[in-house]
Structure formats: structure tokens, C-alpha cells
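Ligand-bound model needed. iron/sulfur cluster.
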Amino acid sequence: MPTLENPYLLKAGRVEKVIKECDGVYTFHVRTQEPAYPGQYNMLYAFGVGEAPITIASMEEGYIVHTVRAVGDVTRHIDQLREGDYLYWRGPYGNRWEIERAYNKTLLIISGGLGLAATRWVFEEALNKPIKRLVHLYGSKDYDSLLYRYLYENWSSKVEFYITLGKPDPRWKGRVGLITEILKDLELDKDTVVFACGPDPMVKACVKILEEKGLLLENLYASLERHMKCSVGTCGHCMIGPYFVCKDGPIFRYDLIREYFERKEV
Amino acid sequence: MEGKGKGRSYLLSLEGIRELFEALKDGYIVLAPKLRDGLIALSEVQSLEELPLGYRNIEAPGFCVIEKVEGYFTYTHPYNSFKSFLHPTELPLIRVRKEREDLNFQTLVPEEKAMCLFDIRACDLSALKVLDTVFLYKNPHPDPYYASLREGLFVLAVNCSYATSTCFCTTMETGPEVKEGYDLLITELSEGFLTEVGSEKGKRIIEKVKDKREAEGKHFEEKRKILEKTELTMKRAFQTEGLTKRLYERMDAKYWEHIEKRCVACTSCTQACPTCFCFDIIERNNLELEESLRVRVWDSCFSPSFATVHRFNLRQSVHSRYRQWLMHKFAYWVGQFDCFGCVGCGRCITWCPVGIDIREEVRRIAYA
Ligand SMILES: Cc1cc2nc3c(=O)[nH]c(=O)nc-3n(C[C@H](O)[C@H](O)[C@H](O)COP(=O)(O)OP(=O)(O)OC[C@H]3O[C@@H](n4cnc5c(N)ncnc54)[C@H](O)[C@@H]3O)c2cc1C
Ligand code: SF4
Ligand code: SF4
Ligand code: FES
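Prediction:
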């Protein structure tokens, strides 16, 4: 019988580079030839501990990039990996950001916290695509949680890239306040395409403002985070209404999931 | 006599049924209902005598007893289902070994031992089809573990001549008559056992049985009457046409919250249910930390960790978990797998410690 491919088998890749982003957050460049698309994720494995879904933050010739925050059992182990170690994973899984929807339009990317890992790749890709105007809002809890500081200069030189911190900091000269405050002040075309990834409450608050601005919610895409185990649509954990976040998502057209996403405890 | 054009049909005596059992035991691990701890449990059996022939299960919400009656296949289905065998409570998926600094992964596809479901009823046969859909046919990553246990399964179905008070297969349109998906189908008649052939596999087995004669028209007539009688004992519990839509419209109904007062989130219903498939994957390590098994274990949408993200359970209230379960069965499932996730076997009703009756809940939520 075993002609079927085993969806739980893991692959291995050498960690080529480790970047410490901030306390408890590391970025790993891992050797692989496996193709993937912006928006997809892998299930990273820690021996004897388990797996966790982690976005593919970027992909370049011959390696994938993962940014991992040590929050629990699996991620704490993964964050201990160093150059030369092996990372084990299965994937890529899930759908992708449909960047072509934004061609010849304004593309607004909204990233909250670690959500920047989920939008980084599509944002980098958008820099070279026929996008009319590219705006990226990134909200970080505080100065110490900022990710990818080494990329900001390049990004800001090319497009509108705004960062806002949840808390003031003597080391920070930029904006302070909630991401929603910048969003309110932003002039946007009615047919702007929006890609959002961040905590559920942030996404909900942004949607309200976008609606007030008269944007069409069918042009809004959000990447959701739910408890995942199998990642292949068989374990039931990641369900939101009739959808499986692991295989129907993680990226959803907002108007299609709205009623489940905004309703309590679905 | 031709039954439904699939092959010849026979009338077997009890001796013929015994021969049939032995023929199947020759090539298969035979799983059949059996009296165990005062309950009828699907178990591996060695002889026909182990079946609870002549016993009857009487069930009601939160209640089950067994009594002795006249006849042979006089009971309904066992309290556990084939699910325990095709989607076992614990199934090792992968063995991971540490070899110096490398990890070695070994797929633990279960050994191929063909199983025979000796005596499966219409509702459970429908549930088998539902699980096949979930694990294999409507899955972009068909599950090799389920597939290897499922492969070669011999299905001997039995038509019900009795329904207990928790049965509602007529509502879900899954029974009491077995219509498809069997290798052999038995109906107990007054003068013997009508045996219909549903596949080549079934034909090969029945050929080994000597104690048989060709079935006649009157036997099919009796079968029809028996099934009609069984059907009449089950009132339609609710309307299924348009049910999904009604449920979607009532997701915010106040009534859901009443369930909080009764449901204790024990997960019994999900374990008893033959179609509930949700699982967790856990790690089982050896003491030296050189080897780790990745094991699939049953999980339940009623458990507090099920939908936990960042130390926060998205479904805090028990009623939201009940809503998840009922909406999944009768609404979400339809979109996901093109069928209901409920076949009307009634197990969740019998085995709910507080007697919550899913028929009652559907009626109140969708139709009150
Ligand atoms: C599609 C997707 C992409 C993600 N991308 C990233 C990423 O790029 N970088 C990153 O650091 N994190 C990412 N996450 C979040 C990460 O998967 C969770 O934080 C995960 O729980 C970490 O596993 P752990 O074993 O270390 O933590 P756990 O030991 O599981 O503990 C972390 C906390 O999160 C809860 N939790 C358990 N499973 C999940 C889950 N699947 N998702 C969310 N919370 C969970 C636990 O209850 C616990 O409270 C992503 C999640 C999803 C669903
Ligand atoms: S929901 Fe209840 S009645 Fe329906 S199949 Fe599951 S256990 Fe049987
Ligand atoms: S409905 Fe009944 S069986 Fe199911 S979790 Fe609640 S109390 Fe337990
Ligand atoms: S993670 Fe298992 S169904 Fe989505």
C-alpha cells in the first residue's frame, strides 16, 4: 500500500546563518531547494518536543528564511539552533498572498508584531512588481521587539514604510502609538488592496477604519493564526467556521471569513 | 435469486453463517460485536459464539442496558465503532532516531493485516464512507496510515430488525437498510439468513459456504417488511433539508448558551462518535532521549487546549465548544466534505453522562 506520500515526514536543511533580531527572536537562513510562495508556512520540528507552524519570511537562491520567537516548547528549542546545525521541517503549506490583485493599484501592507515575518517576503516582492503605490505600516510593541532593523533603510528609501511603536523609547525618534492612528491619517484609493497580518484584535480594529474610509473588504486579505497540528486538513484544530486555516488559508479574503472571524469564540 | 443485480443471493442457516464466519477468519482478523463488561463492544473475535446473538441493547439518553431476547442479530450497533480500528486512539506515525547529530525518520505505516467487519450496520457503514472521505477522498494529502488499515477491509453488513430509542438513521437517511458499500449483506428472516453479495470479494467467500440455498422472491418480500417495520419505530427527529442554512443563520441564537448549564465538556460524545476524526500529535520519548515516537492520539473540540493560541483558548465557554461540535456535524462538514458529519447512530446521546440529546438540540436551535 505505502504508495501514498507520508505528509508527516520531515526534511532536513543546514542552518547557514543565524541573526538575533531581539531578545528571544532569531532569524534562520536554511539551505533548501524546495519551492515556496510568499505567505506559505512550514511546520518546524524540534526533536522529542513537537512542531510549530512558522511562516516562510523570505526565500532566496538556495535557502529559506524563518523568524522564530521563543514562546513555548518548540520555538524555545528552535531558537537554540546555531550555524551548522540542522533544521527539520515539513512543508511548504497553505496558500499565498495574491500579489497580482494589487497590480496597477495601491497596495497597503499592515504588519503587527511578528506578523512582519508573514508579510516581509510579499513586501520585498512587491518592490519589483507593477504596483502603483506601495505603503507598509508596521506596528511593534516596543523598541526592543523591532524585527529586521537591517532592512529598514533599504525599504524606506524605496517606498512608504512607516513604523510605529506601542511605547515611547529614548532610542526611538519615529512614531509612537497604535497602528490604527497612522491608518486613520492615511489617504488611500477606494480600490486599495490590503494585506494584513497581526494579532486578531489589531486586524479587527484596522478593518473598521478601512471600512470607514470606504475601502472594499473584498480587496482585503488577512493571514490568520490558529492552533495547528497536522497542517494538512485532517486534525480539526485550526477550524474557523467552515474553513481550515492550515489548508484553506492561512490567508483569507476578509469578506469571506468576516462573519466567523468577528463573531466571538468561533 | 438476483439481489440488486450484484450477484446471486442465498438463504443460509445458522450453520451456514458459522461456515461463513470460519471462511472469513481464515483470511482476516475478524472484528465483531461481543458482550464485554455488560456492553456490546466491537472486538476481535475467534468464534461465532462470541457474538451477542440473542441479546438486545436498550438505550436512552445517558442510559444503556442489555437484555436477552429471541433471535440472533437482535441488537443494534456496538458502543464503540470501527473508528477505534481504522483511526485508533493511539497510532505511532513516525519514529525519530538521533544518530550522532542527525535525525533519522522512519514511517511507521501499520502492518497490512486485512480486517473483516463482521456485522456492521447501515449507520456505521455510512460513517465508514464519511471517514473515507475525510482521510482519503477529499483530502489533498490522503492519509497513508488510515489507507493501510482500511485497505483490504471486508465488510459484512447486517440489516437492523430493531432500533433502540437513540437511533435516528432514518432522519439522516443512512438506514436502517444497508444499500451499498458491502461485500456481503445479511438480513435475518424467519427461516434463515438472507445473504446478498455486493462484490467479487463477497462472491469468493460465499462460494466457500456449503450450507446455503438460493434465495427466493418471498425472502426479499420478508426483508422489505422487516425494514419497513424497523423504520416505523424511528420517528423523524428533524428536517435535514435546509438544516445547514438554518443553523448558519442561528449561530448567534441565545439558546446555545443554555447548553453551558448541562454540558460538562467531558468529550464522551466525540469519542463515541464514529465520524469524529480530530486528533493531536504527541511525542513519546525514550529515557535516553535517542528515540522519539510521534503518536497520533484522539483529541476533542470540547477540550480546553483544542483551540488555544498564545495561551488563550479561543473557545473559552463550553457552549462555544458545543456549538463548534454541532455546527461542524450539521453545517461546516457539508461544505468541507459534501455530507453531514452525523449518521444518526445515537451513540453521543447514549454516552453523554448528562443525557444531552443531539436531536433535541438541533430541533431547538434550528427549528424552535
Ligand atoms: C500560519 C502560522 C504562521 C506562524 N508564523 C510564525 C512565525 O513566523 N514566527 C513565529 O515565531 N511564530 C509563528 N507562528 C506562531 C507559532 O506557531 C506559535 O507561537 C506556536 O505555538 C509556537 O509553538 P511552541 O511549541 O513554541 O509554543 P507552545 O508550546 O505551543 O506555546 C505557545 C503558546 O501558543 C499556543 N499555541 C499552540 N499552538 C499554537 C499554534 N499553532 N499557533 C499559535 N499558538 C499556538 C500555546 O497554547 C501556547 O500558549 C505562526 C502560526 C501560524 C498558525
Ligand atoms: S453525532 Fe452522535 S448520532 Fe451523529 S454520528 Fe456522531 S455519535 Fe452518532
Ligand atoms: S455533550 Fe455530553 S458527552 Fe458531549 S462533552 Fe458535553 S457532557 Fe460530554
Ligand atoms: S492543522 Fe490540522 S486541520 Fe488544520
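The mean pLDDT of chain B is 95.
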